[in-house]
Amino acid sequence: MSLLARLAPHLPYVRRYARALTGDQTTGDNYVRVALEALAAGERQLSQDMTPRVALYHVFHAIWTTTGAQLEGRGGSGDEASRRLMRISPRSRQAFLLTALEGFTPSETAQILGSDVPSVEALISEAQADIDAELATDVLIIEDEAIISADIESLVKDLGHRVTATATTHDEAVDAVSRHKPGLVLADIQLADGSSGIDAVKDILKAIDVPVIFITAFPERLLTGERPEPTFLITKPFQPETVKAAISQALFFHPGRKELA
After folding, report:
1. How far is CA 193 from CA 63, 196, 212, in A?
2. First to last CA, the chain
3. Is the overall model pTM greater than 0.90, yes or no?
4. Where are the beta strands (DSSP E) in the chain?
5. What is the pLDDT of residues 4-46, one digit of tens each?
């Protein structure tokens, strides 16, 4: 199989990543172009110890590290997400985007960055801390189990956010939003009176544009193969770090978030 055929399925994604990393499509494409030219000329090789996708990102990072001084700064999209990214240190930015945007595991990310898993996890934590500090917001929790609701509230507050309401039913959730618009919604599916958290979220999204994270013991009710499916879905019982990471990602990648006043 030719080099182009091996890499073709991954090129749209590495271009997306390059744009997020550099903050500009033209600059990102320049990096990808130089990486592909280096591969075609035999100046760089895809590692046989990595999957083709991981190996491509690894080559991209080698180019980004060694030629950044020549390629950075050409253009600039100026959108808010890009400006937020540029305020995160480069190494933390890489680890965060590789895992949060591109879906690589910490182990794969370590391969791409030429690092180790503990170092990558530390970089991700640093990025999440920077994001959470900058994007503190008001949170609505839709959860009918008091202990779980309290656990989630504690996690949210640990990240510097403020819980403005908790709801145990569809009607309570919709009413809470009518009284105070949140910047993030954390929702269960099955609620106290038999009502649906899915229906509550649908009604909320008709009124406001807000990121939603579902935390549920019944993920199959959302993963039906029909579109749209939720971007952020956490299965109970959950790990606290999983929830914290999802909150950081949801707020960062959602342009319409509402910050604390």
Report:
1. 56, 9, 21
2. 56
3. no
4. 138-142, 162-167, 184-187, 212-216, 232-235
5. 778 888 999 999 888 888 777 888 888 899 999 999 999 999 9
